[in-house]
Amino acid sequence: MNNSRLKIASLELIDITKRFPGVLANDRVTFDVKSGEIHALLGENGAGKSTLMKVLYGLYQPDGGEIRIDGKSVTIHSPTDAIARGIGMIHQHFMLVDELTVTENVALGLKSSRGPVLDLDKVEARIRQLSQAYGLHINPKAPVWTLAVGERQRVEIVKALYRGADLLILDEPTAVLTPQEVDDLFATLNQMKRDGRALIFISHKLHEVVAISDRISVLRSGRLVDTVPNQGVTRAMLARMMVGRDVLLDRPHTALTPGAARLVLEDVDALGVIGQPALRRVTLEVHAGEILGVAGVSGNGQRELAEVIAGLRAPTGGRVLLDGVDVTSWTPGRRTDAGLGYIPEERMHDGIVQEFSVAENLVLQDYDHPPMSNGVFLNFGAIASRSRDLVRDFNIRTPSIETTTRSLSGGNIQKLILARELSRDPKVLVAAQPTRGVDIGATEYIHQRLLEQRRRGTATLLISEDLDEILNLSDRIVVIYEGRIMGVIAREQATAEQIGLLMAGVAEGR
Amino acid sequence: AAPVAAPAGGGQAAATEAAAEAESAGPIRVALLMPSTINDISWSQSMYVSLKELQDELGADKLEIAYSENMFNVPDAAAAIRDYASSGYNLVIAHGAQYGDSLMDIAPDFPDVSFAWGTTTRTGKDQGIENIFAYEPRGDQAGYVTGVLAAKLTKSKIIGLVGPVDAGDAKLHVDGFLAGVKATDPDVKVNVSFTGSFGDTALAAEAANTHIRAGADVLTGSAQQVVGAIGVAKENGVPWLGVQADQSTAAPEIVLASAIYDWTQLLRDIIAMREAGTMGGEVLQLTYANGGIRTIYSDALPAEAVEAAKAAEAGLADGSITIVVEPR
Amino acid sequence: MFHEFLSVATLIGIANSGVRLATPYLYAALGEMFGQRSGVLNLGVEGVMLMGAFAAYYTVYIGGDPWLGVLAAIIVGALMGLLMALISVTMQAQQGISGIGLTLFGVGLSSLLLKVLVGSPIGISGFSTWKVPGLNSIPVIGPIFFEHNILVYIAYLLVPVSLYVLYRTTFGLKIRAVGQNPEAADSLGVRVNAVRYGTVMLGSAMAGIAGASLSIGLLNIFQENMTNGLGFIAVALVYFGGWRPLGVLIGALLFSTVNALQLWMQVLGVPIPSDLAVMMPYLLTIVVLAVGGQRIRQPAALTKPYERGE
Amino acid sequence: MQRFLRSLRFLELALPIAAVLIAFAIGGVLLALLGANPFEAYWVLISGAFGSVGGLASTLTKMTPLLLVALGICISFRGGVINIGGEGQIIVGALAATAFTLWLRDWPGWLLLPLTLIVGALAGAVWGGIAGVLKARLNVNEILSTVMLNAIALQLMNFLLRGPMLDPAQIAAGTNIAQSEALPRSVWLTRLAPPTLLHSGVILALVLAVLVYLLLWRTTIGFRIRTVGLNPSAARYAGMPVPFYVAFSLILAGGFAGLAGAVEVTGVSHRMLEGLSGGYGFSGIVAALFGKLHPLGAIPASFLFGGLLVGANKMQLTVQVPSALITVINGLVVMFVVASEVYVRRARRRAGREAAEASLKRESSTPSAEAAVP
Ligand SMILES: Nc1ncnc2c1ncn2[C@@H]1O[C@H](COP(=O)(O)OP(=O)(O)OP(=O)(O)O)[C@@H](O)[C@H]1O
Ligand SMILES: Nc1ncnc2c1ncn2[C@@H]1O[C@H](COP(=O)(O)OP(=O)(O)OP(=O)(O)O)[C@@H](O)[C@H]1O
Ligand SMILES: [Mg+2]
Ligand SMILES: [Mg+2]
After folding, report:
1. Does the residue D116 lie in any domain?
2. Are strands A167-171 and A340-343 parallel, antiparallel or unpaired?
């Protein structure tokens, strides 16, 4: 409390232990962060990062250890408590109410200056101030459901700033951002750091950690491996600390001669969720044995593109061809049977049934084909043996094939979907954000499988907002902007700068 | 009716003995099953109240009463009838037309128990069943007298009738009412509406409102739902004429008359016949003639109207008036 | 017969009836709307209404002022809401079924109390019609809207009040947030379950008044199971109204006006079987919704109990 | 481990029983206040429902429509739709079955009876299907439409039973009791234990419970229904016609309720009557949920719930308490039993999580599983 404006000069977590039934999520972890510093936290999925932060934010009570603010021992009972002490948190999954406006989201839970009556005009004015000061570009009146992912994250930041967060926890904030958005975010974070705030930054992307942080701590299996200053560390070193072994970070790309065009889109138009034109005269071809990368800022028609190909959204114009056959009017089921595989963007929501067992989810596409069924009755023997094979082949970490899928980690759920789709040996594969939020071990594995599929002649459409991923895997790259294809670039000629410009709508790459 | 000699059959022996024992030693035990509740201020209440009166008259040691309410599901009622019959009750009253077929099944199994069933004229005698009394309140007579009274009371020449459904007893009542009005003053118009159920008080209330707005200055109706209509009538100071039970509890100031069903004599008759050895097979009616239907008049009624109504009562009683039902 | 039917007096009569008949639906459905907006489906409205109706009736019966009766209905309603919240919010029971349980409980208890405390129904003097001075002499409008008992007026006042509470107060903001994304609300220190207790109790208190509007407003008596399914219609009207106060108002008015219309048709002798006439409002409600093709989405967390850390 | 699982199972059994006991305890206080002996009353309730051949037969008779409705509810809830239209579907099924039989009364029973049951089921299916199609095609909420359809079915019954379908004998006698003509004996379901009402419909219901179990968990159709119910958007991605299955779930649910109506007509009342639906449309939901929405679980659940209803009637009869008190106790039982489920759920989740973690630990400690990338 010595600083009149900032409530937190330093914060220490000492020997924090948090146990869940059967798991030691945090095992005597010691961690600290100071005013004017960005401290990164690294670790594989399930290493205990989020748990540690939730302890700090009052969502969990630790089983052991203590929290000190400015040297004084404190107990944080609840998020409200944390907020009052100047701690803010941006969760791995956004905590926004879609149906409310930005202003309402910010005002939620705050005391109003008018007692029981809302004072949204005041909140709105302050939001404008904050977004000016930190370059956040937010329209306070917009309902959240109309916002793109990047904008939503900025709303989260405003929420925290509005509540006077002097210490801000960001749990995987970049997982869903484009490079430009990441740059903007980093500018904001640096601005906050200059203001004297303390920041904790969690990410699976090593180059980001190296780019933004002052110090880096690595967790593995609930224990702190080490805390190192961000000087002279390399990505390879960090990866080794995290995983406990060497990791292949960039995959050598071997040229293959692509075959015939397997997926063709001709002049496809489509409308988006709220009836806006989302795709405009999209024309593209994906050949056998080729990965075509689709780069673009989120919300520029990627979702609609994937859905039109999968048959989940009817185009308002144009044609979709699979192996030369016009499938524009086909149902999704018929397309799948004809050899289309699809890894949806929202894996929890669209890709699996959370309450189903692993086995049931693994046969979600093929349950009605022999040998899984005779068309009427399911054959559990066949389903089980196939599921066991897939769990083994794709290294899905699950206690058994009867386990409910909900209890798997995100990375393993993604592997499950991958297993389901790739095991059908699809002729055409649409992979939307296949590694979003997945740790480097699993990412590496997924990339490897996609490339293997390419060798086997699958035509893959890879939609990703992770430019590194696109550059690493694609044979050719198209950029989508406001529903239009801005240009096609061969991998050899592609540079991040050029693609970045196209993504921003500057059409000169052709 | 041939008196039924107790069959000396094997299976029924135990029941026979039990019944015989109950008969000689204890009180007469009566069980009552009804589709609504004992406080519905109409159909079920009228029977329950009569039974109670009879009990007061004879003494609780002579008449024992048991009842089951809300037996709107017929199989449930059938189960209850069977239970009462097999647990030593001497007379089981199935107070609802819908119970008849179940009763026809059950009664032959319990020759020592008498059953009573209304509204009906069927005793099952034609099928060889000897232990069912059929009873029937002449709702049309009750309606007729109320109709006469209503026609005398109305100044606007419009009367409103709030019915539950256009069938059974309710229909009988409506038909009689219309005939009574017609006979008294052919110029009077009766607006009839039905709510579609026996218990929709809110809709019945609004129906009353509608009638009043449509010019009615006298209201009547039937079933437990009418409490709603009576409330509205009271609010608007419009006279109400009740049927079945004494509805003046709901609003003494405007319920000017109730044509009530008084089952006491009918019950007495049944009990007497039973004691004389007639287990069933008779049809009994509630009529003005036998005092089963009585009209209670409020002092607030004009003498002339009461006179006309009483004349109608007398005419119905001596048969000089016959009710002519016209198609509606 | 038809010219009579189309007369101005008749049309005014229909509208007047419709306005009054909508009263219990308005109280109950607006109350239910609050609960549902916060994520709790209370199918027990019917039982709560009956308990409220009896509480108000009995208060007046033993000599209390009608306003005291309303207070009793509110208290009893809120207590029933507390029970519902305990079971559905704290104990996380499946909401559809706990509501059916609450309905049975209310139907039974109110009828039992009537039997034990009163016996057969006895009329009381509740609220009487209060013609709003001045306003009631406006032609057409006056007779339609300003010739009712006070509880009718209050029901309509509750529409703007509900709008205000829902969209202009911090409580309303919390309700909307909790019903859509309880996790997000929780992360900002909004006490999700406390809000739900609040809305369920508020909604039940309003269902209690809905009952009172029958027993001491419209009918001046209590009768076993007198709501006769009205509570379920009220729940349906919340869906019809798309969880918005104005939608609920439109639904309630539509439903009850058609009901009034069919009553008038019967009274004036339009030749249609009464059973089919009674069917009309139900049919129309479905048809309107089907034709209107609603695109409204229900509150995302509706019927989903909240537990932190899931 | 074993012991823990056993105790979880114990909890699953013990908790609902404890909940019922608490409900009974409260009801007991009310009984005592009304001057009845609660212990006697409950003894009558239990022995009345299960303590004699007659009681057991009544319980099984009540169980039949409950189970049939509950089976439909299992399907529709698994398919993600809330069917509270059981009452209307029962009525429509019973009406159609009655009309059909009376129309073709001279056909031989071996042909007419199955056809009658099918017609009842079909009529219920149509009634449920209206709500289903409205939801699937026009996004009309099924809670709203089924509530309305219940009221419409009721009035339809009023109309038919007082007009076109009114028993000619009633017209002749001038009594006009709202009931249909009696069905020909050829379609009466066999009575299993005369003089009780128990009829062969109970066997049909039990067989169907097994079939519904097979349908839901052993067939591709069931797989689709469950997928659509749990996650319609994943179902869409997996190529399932979601709107069809939404409608289909309600059609099947309506079909079962309609069949319940037909079975009541042919098995119990032998004619169409008012009050025939007996609240089974709602009690069936309760039974289904007590049975954890599992068709086989619905068997004991509807047996017990049927017993509760039978026993309660006995209690009214023997102890002479108002029927309203029984409604109160039923309400308390329903509320407390659903409320108790949370503890079972929590315990089960904890057990499942522990098992998962334990086996994960075991697995990750073996070297083979660790080698993610060769
Ligand atoms: N609420 C909970 N209940 C039980 N176990 C939990 C809970 N939350 C987390 N865990 C367990 O604690 C461990 C640490 O999880 P945590 O979410 O902190 O990992 P993380 O490092 O944030 O992973 P990720 O990179 O996937 O976000 C995991 O093994 C997880 O299974
Ligand atoms: N409420 C909970 N109870 C128990 N375990 C939980 C709970 N929530 C999450 N977990 C566990 O925490 C781990 C991480 O879960 P989380 O939801 O953070 O997945 P994720 O971060 O998307 O996973 P990944 O990083 O692998 O993609 C999983 O193993 C999951 O089983
Ligand atoms: Mg995490
Ligand atoms: Mg993660």
Report:
1. yes
2. unpaired
| A232 and A156 fall within a common domain | yes
d(CA A468, ligand 2 centre) in Å: 26
Residue B294, strand partner residues: B260
Please name the residues between 263 and 322 in chain D that touch chain C, using a CB distance below 8 Å. 282, 285-286, 289, 322
Q: Based on the fold, state whether residues A114 and A207 are members of the same structural domain.
A: yes
Which chain B residue has its CA at the smallest distance from C21's CA?
A: B206
Domain shared by A283 and A196, yes or no: no
User: From ligand 3's centre to the CA of A189, what distance in Å?
Assistant: 20
Q: What's residue D326's pLDDT?
A: 84
Quick one: pLDDT at residue C140? Answer: 83
Residue A5 in any domain: the answer is no
The domain in which residue D232 lies consists of 64-311
The model carries a pTM of 0.86
Is the pLDDT reported for residue A510 higher than 50? no
Q: Would you list the DSSP string of D85-137? A: -HHHHHHHHHHHHHHHHHHTTTS-HHHHHHHHHHHHHHHHHHHHHHHHHHHHH
Total of domains in chain A: 2
Q: Which residue is closest in CA terms to ligand 1's atom 3? A: A20
A440 CB within 6 A, ligand 2 = no
A188 with A329, same domain: the answer is no
Q: Has residue D12 been placed in a domain?
A: no
A235 and A292 together in one domain: no
With respect to residue D25, please indicate whether it lies within any of the assigned structural domains. Answer: no
Hey, is the C-beta of D278 within 8 angstroms of any chain B C-beta? Answer: yes
Query: Chain C residue with minimal CA distance to D281?
Result: C100
The CATH code for residues C2-118+148-292 is: 1.10.3470
Whether chain A has a CB inside 8 Å of the CB on D349: the answer is: no
Atom 29 of ligand 1, nearest CA residue: A46
Are A60 and A195 part of one and the same domain? yes
What is the DSSP code string of A368-401? TSTTTBSSSBB-HHHHHHHHHHHHHHTT---S-T
pLDDT at D169: 80
Residue A252 lies in a domain: no
C-beta of residue B249 within 8 angstroms of C-beta of residue C121: yes
Q: Which of D226, D251, D217, D324 is nearest to D85 (CA)?
A: D251
Comparing CB atoms, the residue among D154, D162, D179 nearest residue B166 is D162
For residues B317-324, average pLDDT: 89
pLDDT of B2: 37
Ligand 2 within 6 A of C310 CB?
yes
Residue A180 is predicted with a pLDDT of 75
CATH number of residue A267's parent domain: 3.40.50.300
Strand order in the sheet with B293-297: B189-194, B158-163, B218-221, B240-244, B255-261, B293-297
Q: What is the pLDDT of residues C59-90, one digit of tens each?
A: 999 999 999 999 999 999 999 999 999 999 99
Q: Can you list the residues of chain D whose pLDDT is less than 50?
A: 1, 365-374
Does the ipTM exceed 0.85? no
Domain residue ranges in chain C: 2-118+148-292
- pLDDT tens digits, B170-215: 888 999 999 999 999 999 999 999 988 888 888 899 999 999 988 9
Positive/negative CA dihedral, D314, D316, D319, D324: positive
Among A235-244, B86-95, C173-182, the range scoring the smallest mean pLDDT is: A235-244
- Relative to the alpha carbon of A203, which ligand is closest? 1
User: Is A414 within a domain?
Assistant: no
Ligand 1 centre from A49 Cα, in Å?
A: 8
Nearest-Cα distance to chain C for A25, in Å, is 14
D301 within some domain: yes
Pairwise CA distance, residues B288 & B318, whole Å: 9
- Number of folded domains in chain D? 1
Domain housing A444: 261-354+425-503
Are residues A226 and A347 located together in one domain of the fold? no
b/e map of A63-93 (b: 16 or more CB within 10 Å)?
eebebebbeeeeebebbbebbebbbbbbbbe
Chain D, window 17-56: residues with a beta carbon less than 8 angstroms from a chain B beta carbon? 54
A188 plus A237 within the same structural domain: yes
